[in-house]
Write a structure and sequence with these properties.
It is a multi-pass membrane protein. It catalyses: 4 Fe(II)-[cytochrome c] + O2 + 8 H(+)(in) = 4 Fe(III)-[cytochrome c] + 2 H2O + 4 H(+)(out). This is Cytochrome c oxidase subunit 2. This protein is an alpha+beta fold. It folds into 2 domains: 82 residues, Helix Hairpins, CATH 1.10.287; 154 residues, Sandwich (Immunoglobulin-like). The protein has 4 helices and 10 strands, in the order ααββββββββββαα. The strands form 2 sheets. It has a 5-stranded mixed beta sheet. A 5-stranded mixed beta sheet has the order 4-10-9-6-7, covered by helices on one side. A hairpin with a 2-residue loop joins strand 1 and strand 2. The C terminus is likely disordered. Bound molecules: copper (II) ion (CU). Copper (II) ion binds next to loops.
Length: 261
């Protein structure tokens, strides 16, 4: 999760966020390069009279210099093309995530409510009449944070966290029960709007286990800040045990039984 005075992004735990961070870093290199070059010539032209001549007239070497004009028109076009290509590539992979033709092992329906999240787990057959794991996820109020969860982050902990397996691809399907919400988990590179009457979906996988935090990112009413997201990513074998046990809400005890404490 984000740390105090953190300037950069949160650590990525999947290829999607890695690509976003790489794009951001590359764009920053380009921006700094352009700023430096343009700034250098701006100062040079203004301070030496190179463009306006010592006597106030336009320099004959700069004015109507066709080669120079072609150069300073095409170079920005190349830069813009590179930025646009990287940006569109990320947008496209956020939608399909290179998994066309592969059916994910798991479907999770994420529904935003005023002001909590609910999660419904289905197997890959997308058979919504079949039995599934379904639970609500509410904020743990500040006064109830007693450290029993192992971590205590104000306005970030929930009673029933979303539990996902690592190294398995899954599809998240987003919708809302009332007003617009947005499911935002920075480490996943994931921010998808939950819109009433509409389903948005996202296929991806995560490679690291851990606890990750997110927020609702679409202003949705008085307690918009009171519907945080906690995602626990565990190994696929542990996850199967949790899922088949239907042990939602008792996950902390489940983890303890594995860690032997
Ligand atoms: Cu919301």
């Amino acid at each position: 999760m984000a740390e105090w005075r953190q300037l950069s992004f949160e650590d990525s735990i999947n290829s999607k966020m890695m690509n976003l961070i790489f794009f951001h870093d590359s764009a920053m290199v380009l921006i700094v390069f352009v700023m430096a070059v343009v700034g250098f010539f701006l100062v040079l032209f203004l301070s030496t009279g190179l463009s306006f001549g010592m006597n106030g007239f336009t320099s004959r070497f700069i004015s109507s210099n066709e080669k120079l004009e072609v150069f300073w028109s095409t170079l920005p076009a190349v830069f813009l093309f590179l930025l646009g290509w990287g940006s569109l590539h990320n947008l496209y992979s956020a939608e399909v995530n290179g998994s066309a033709g592969t059916e994910p092992s798991l479907n999770v329906v994420v529904v935003g409510h005023q002001w909590y999240w609910s999660y419904e787990y289905y197997d890959s057959a997308l058979d919504y009449s079949a039995s599934s794991v379904e639970f609500d996820s509410y904020l743990v109020p500040e006064g109830d944070l007693d450290g029993s969860l192992g971590s205590c982050f104000r306005m970030s902990e929930v009673d029933n966290p979303m539990v996902l397996p690592s190294d398995l691809s899954f599809r998240l399907i987003f919708s809302s029960d009332d007003v617009m919400h947005s499911f935002y988990v920075p480490s996943f590179g994931l921010k998808t709007d939950c819109i009433p009457g509409r389903l948005n979906s996202n296929i991806f996988s995560v490679v690291l286990e851990g606890v990750f935090y997110g927020k609702c990112a679409e202003i949705c009413g008085a307690y918009h800040s009171g519907m945080p997201i906690t995602v626990e990513v565990i190994s696929s074998s542990d996850w199967l045990g949790w899922y088949e046990g239907g042990a939602c809400g008792e996950f902390s005890e489940f983890v303890e039984s594995f860690s032997g404490s």
